[in-house]
Design a protein that fits this description.
The protein has 97 residues and is mainly beta. The protein contains no helices and 8 strands. Strands 1-2 form a two-stranded antiparallel ribbon. A two-stranded antiparallel ribbon has the order 3-4. It is rod-shaped.
């Protein structure tokens, strides 16, 4: 929950952060966009969810797991929360799943 109003006098003035954003400190005045490699599908998120391995997400503020794009042939993302897929190393290959 965040509180964007000046002079608020009640807890009901707080609002949930919209999808694609989060606040890790409830009661603050702003919500932060999810960083590349992460998304937030639900209002009121306290953190963003990392895209799964094998996918990447380059933009800020994603609000659905569908925003995580599968790596193309010849590229890979072995870790969760990757912003860009990497080209395969010499002597290796990256096949589709």
């Amino acid at each position: 929950m965040y509180q964007p109003l000046t002079g608020a006098s009640n807890v009901t003035d707080c609002e949930p952060c919209p999808t694609g954003t989060f606040t890790d400190s409830p009661g603050t005045g702003t919500c932060m966009q999810c960083s590349p490699g992460t998304y937030s599908e639900f209002e009121g998120a306290l953190q963003c969810t990392q895209c799964p391995p094998g996918t990447a997400l380059r933009s800020y503020g994603a609000n659905t797991t569908d925003s995580c794009v599968p790596c193309s042939l010849g590229t890979y993302a072995s870790d969760a929360g990757t912003a860009e897929c990497r080209p395969g190393e010499p002597g290796m290959y990256a096949a589709s799943e």
